[in-house]
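Here is a tokenized protein:
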Amino acid sequence: MSLPRPLHALAAAALVAAAALGPTVAVSAAASAAGSAPVLPSADQLKAALLTANDLGPGYTEAPASGSPGPSENPTPVSGCDALNALINMHATGSGPATPRAETELDGPDGGNPMVTEALTAEDPARLATDFATATDAFRTCHTITFNAGTDASVTFTVTPVTLGDRQDAPAVRLDGTLAGVQLSAYLGIERFGTVGMAYGFFQRQGADAQTASMQYRSAVAKVERTLGTTAGSTTPPTVTATQGMSV
């Protein structure tokens, strides 16, 4: 049995909304002329910092590229949370050359249960700070959120703030809902690493495994830190930049 469609829609929304840390923006000409704009990691370097199936353990597989809607496709209809809905619609067109981005979806051993998503986006520090604050506020102000994507029935999730990793200030929420008697749960978390924003999602049916969600979130954070040479919560750009070589 595959995950119910609304949970896949929630996963896509997480990659769009929580990873709203990276809208398509250009560094200002004045900043570029002054030489103050930092060099961002490339999309390939961000990809190398993403979780892989091997990082999560036996039974996990990387989902096909066409397995679920991406940020460039139609946004998921959302109600009940204006802040998150605005983020989804604002960033539904995806990112461009000014904002390198990489994402992944990893399906668990039980027909894609659980499912893990991760997105990394690089952008100018000032813009990232603004986007991170906006996404943080969306997490803070949302108490319920309803998704309706490709089904006759909508699914309403309750939203509860949680802590996923070691940093208490890293925004994260737990979502709980039901569809046709099936329990649907999710953990969403966002973090910044200098000029890189991370969006993490853990999605599960018939359960809410907080321990595994937290463990895999910590693995995601540790891999970004190790690969890009930065620390979670830092405002300092990663030491791995687009001008440096990188072995894959």
Notes: Strands lie at 61-62, 78-79, 101-107, 115-122, 144-147, 155-161, 172-179, 182-193, 196-205. The chain has a mean pLDDT of 76.
